[in-house]
Amino acid sequence: MSDNLIEMSAVELLAGYREGRFSPLEATQAVLDRIHAVNDKINAFMIIDDEGALAAAKLSEARWAKGAPMGELDGVPTTIKDLVLTKGWPTLKGSLTVDPAGPWDEDAPCVARLREHGAILLGKTTTPEVGWKGLTESALSGTTRNPWNLAKTPGGSSGGAAAALAANMGPLAVGSDGGGSIRIPASFTGVFGIKANYGRVPVYPESAMRTLSNVGPMTRTVGDAALMLNVMSEPDHRDHTALPYQDIDFTQGLDDGIAGLKVAFSPDLGYAKVDDDVAAIVADAVKAFTELGASVVRRDPGFENPKAIFKAHWWAGAAGAFAHFSDEDKAKLEPEFAQIVAEGEDLSILDYMRAMEGRTVLHLQLREFFQEFDLLLTPSLAVPAFDVGRLQPPGSPPDDTYWTDWTPFSYPFNLGQQPACSIPCGFTAHGLPVGLQIVADNFREDLVLRAAKAFEAARPLDRQPDL
User: Fold this and answer.
1) CB neighbours (10 Å) of residue 280?
2) Which of 108, 228, 239, 288 is deepest in the core (most CB within 10 A)?
3) Which sequence spans correspond to the domains of the chain?
4) Distance of CA 167 to the CA centre of its chain
5) In the chain, what is the greatest distance between 2 CA atoms, to the nearest angstrom?
6) For residue 100, how many other CB atoms are within 10 A of its CB?
7) How far is it, in rounded angstroms, from Cα 189 to Cα 413?
8) How does pLDDT run across 315-330, given as a tens digit for each residue?
9) Which of 273, 326, 331, 292 is nearest to 457 (CA)?
């Protein structure tokens, strides 16, 4: 355990507050100092609220002094992605189409729960325009960079959240994932991120991508993500699609190990092209599961590439989100995203219905697969982080639709709605992080977290970006 406050996990900070070794005000000031020291290099923030964070930290400090913390995260510095409503701060979604004037008078469910549990909100992190791509660059916020190599992208669309975590600018971050937007940047920046089962974390307003989209925790440790998921999964009446609240404590059973579990390893899902370095690192990481007592076999889940099914859902959602916009406002959109909106407008009802049928088949195939296996392991991404300023990595096929060919492992599980995480599992020869994806059957976040915690303990990574 580090004695440096900015490197501590939320669990470690809370223990320190409890024992009186340091205070929420000291931890918050340390993180704010770190933000102001390195953020100009990385550009992870849209808003940094020193005044609000320090005021909240003083209140938290007083509660801890009385031995009466207000919730599970009292005094823990936390960031919010700029797609998530936060009272008092503009939610601009990385887009020139959003009026900064607001009003900004409402918290999204996860933000409301974080406040109720005493989290210290530091500011809002960057996202590409309306979260449309697997990078974090926009005309509004500029380019966000990867702390491991400032010439590389941190991924997206929760790239600001991931970059802030990797650079020790806070231990907890709220991200969102409509096709991989938590797991993509978690993989590129060497942090942990989990997309819970759809509906586990209440969402409001409803995403334009509807039942593809999730809000979830991004952290540096599995234990922090479990603690954060406890808070974020609490109920909110505004989400009519949310799962019934079960009051699950996701921190329980984290250390139970994975001995005896049946695990499938699919290095390419049967159709993906994977970078050789990434493939080798992930294959080596999978060996840890055998060493930990699981039964691991090489097995693909058996579905064909669902890119067309995903595109029909996602492109239609994009078109619907901007259907009421004037041509003048649509002209403010990034050209590539405007093309997605136009293609979505051209989809017919029959196209969409066929995609829904294809999604149903995929979901059933996955449910059958998880009758045999407890877990599925894959690479998180097909490539390591590539240069900023590019939509695709070098060598992408001419028909690559901006991100779906280099992120083949993420969006199938948005379609199927299974819980899935990315956990760092190694580094390329060029020092770039690589992520391992762990997927479980619907509603089994406990298995994903348990497996991730076992892997984290077996294969700890102790490198820090050199900033």
Assistant:
1) 15
2) 228
3) 6-458
4) 16
5) 62
6) 9
7) 21
8) 999 999 999 999 999 9
9) 292
3-state secondary structure at position 304: coil
Q: Catalytic site residues?
A: 81, 157, 181
In whole angstroms, give the CA distance from residue 363 to residue 78: 34
Name 316's bridge partners: none
Q: If residue 295 lies in a helix (H) or strand (E), which one and from where to where?
A: strand 295-298
Fold exhibited by the domain 6-458: Amidase signature (AS) enzymes (3.90.1300)
Query: Residue type for 3, please?
Result: D
- Tell which residue, 131, 217, 135, has the closest CA to residue 174: 217
Q: Which two tokens stand for residue 30?
A: 């340390």
In tens, the pLDDT along 249-301 reads 999 999 999 999 999 999 999 999 999 999 999 999 999 999 999 999 999 99
155 burial class (0-12, 13-18, 19+ CB within 10 angstroms)? buried
Q: What is the edge-to-edge ordering of all strands in the sheet holding 433-440? A: 45-48, 120-125, 77-81, 172-177, 214-219, 192-195, 420-427, 433-440, 375-379, 262-265, 295-298
In sequence order, which residues have a C-beta less than 8 Å from that of residue 271 and are 6 or more positions away? 304, 305, 408
Give me the average pLDDT of each 10-residue run along the chain (467 residues).
Answer: 88 98 98 98 98 98 97 98 98 96 96 98 98 96 98 98 98 98 98 98 96 98 98 98 98 98 98 97 98 98 97 96 92 94 96 98 98 98 97 79 88 98 98 98 98 98 92
Prior bond to 205 cis, omega within 30? yes
Terminal-to-terminal C-alpha distance of the chain: 21
Cβ atoms of residues 144 and 160 within 8 Å: yes
pTM exceeding 0.85: yes
Tokens of 446: 């406990």
Cβ–Cβ < 8 Å for 75, 24: yes
In 128-208 the beta strands, taken as DSSP E runs, fall at: 137-138, 142-143, 172-177, 192-195
